[in-house]
Amino acid sequence: MSDPTSTARTARRSGPGESGAGLAAGPFRVDRDRIVASPFFARLAGVTQVVSPTGTGLVVHNRLTHSLQVAQVARAIAERVPDCDPDVVEAAALAHDLGHPPFGHQGEQVLDRLARERLGLPDGFEGNAQSFRIVTTIDLHGPTGTGLDLTAAVRAAILKYPWTRRGYPDPHPSRAAVPPRGGGPLPGEPEAGSAKFSCYETELDDLRSARAAFPGTGPWRQTVEAAVMDTADDVAYAIHDLEDFHRVGVLQQAGVAAELAGWRRNAGTSGPGAGLEAMRRRLADKDAWAYDDDLFAAAVDRVRDELVDGLLGVAFDGSMAAERAVAEFSARWTARLAGGVVRDPDPPVRSGPVALAGPQWHEVAVLKFVHQRFVLGRADLASYQRGQGTVLTGLVGALADWLADDDAPRLPARLHDLAELARSQGAPLEQARGRAVIDYTASLTDGQAGALLDVLTGRTGRIWTDAAVL
């Protein structure tokens, strides 16, 4: 890696643009402060992590608390990794979810489908690409007319998936026999491009300029700081969502215990343990570079001992003792996982230059399985998410119709500005309107999305409050 103080890494899109005090604080600290001051960062407090923080009556993580935790874990990892700047990593971690739309990953999937099928946008929608668009194009909290004017190092570190949906780079990862993680095609849509990507075509020059500061980094490779941020995201996701659902009584010991013990007893051929065995086979097939039978079995045992027999062994009752148990579980696992990283200058295609060591990699896989199987796989959550998808579908349709009619002078000012911005980037009129609708919708909180749909469908009488989001 280049010297962390090199001109290329600290270069901004439009020159220094800093006061003497800003430079004294260090360019990467300035980047972090700009990100934290952004209204896009503040809105994450009202955006779903797993279940919506709006109206549930539950105290659960949202995208803001998740981002803060990722930043904390990322900095702890960065301080252990040679040739890695902790300030760059922290800034990227704080920015990595800026583009997540209302209703979290469910909202992301719905907006992508609507963007491609309803609005004719070849790039569709992707939360990571939206984050990059915000910091380079949409936000106005830097010294220039658009974007935050971040350094090349921080912009590169935000690029978890450093490619566009289809064309860049060539050869494109979606066409590879073994693509990088996230780079494979959308399920059932081989011509649609990569399922995950970190840049729309409109911001490709920003991606290229950021990556140019790291000439030794291969075309599909993350920078070291991006890999640290990505690893920290995995760690935070694996631990903190389990805390939430233990607290609210959704994650029950009996079901998790039966699954893990069933796999141990009968290799999961049928009945309890079958889901874990299916996940194990997928790991062995897709990630043979990292998978190991003995490490997987050891990971199952550790999760059973510490999660099932430990944390879940006593129902959460809100007492100080129960809170202490959660805090100790979280601290112990965070320290174990964050402390278990390896630096690899020539990583396998599905890994990165910084990754979890073998035992921790398997443990994260098992923890994620528990979350997927016993939280995300619940029928009640599926019905809840279906309703959220209905909200976004109605909202996108109503906004697109409004942009297309003759009432344009009375459009919300921000929607009008976003359409003009997309036109200035060379998009044809219809695609510019479509991108504006997606940018506008993605910038809302969960509560704002629901309230705005009520306004646009005439279901609210609170015009001066619900319509304020316009």
TrEMBL record:
A Pfam match: HD_assoc
Region (Disordered): 1-25, 169-194
One of the GO BP terms on file: dGTP catabolic process
Origin: domain of life: Bacteria
Keywords from the named record: Hydrolase
Gene3D superfamilies with a match to the protein in the record: Hypothetical protein af1432
UniProt GO MF annotations: dGTPase activity
Residue ranges annotated for the HD domain, each copy included: 63-238
UniProt cross-references to PANTHER family, sorted A to Z: DEOXYGUANOSINETRIPHOSPHATE TRIPHOSPHOHYDROLASE, DEOXYNUCLEOSIDE TRIPHOSPHATE TRIPHOSPHOHYDROLASE
Protein name in the entry: DNTP triphosphohydrolase
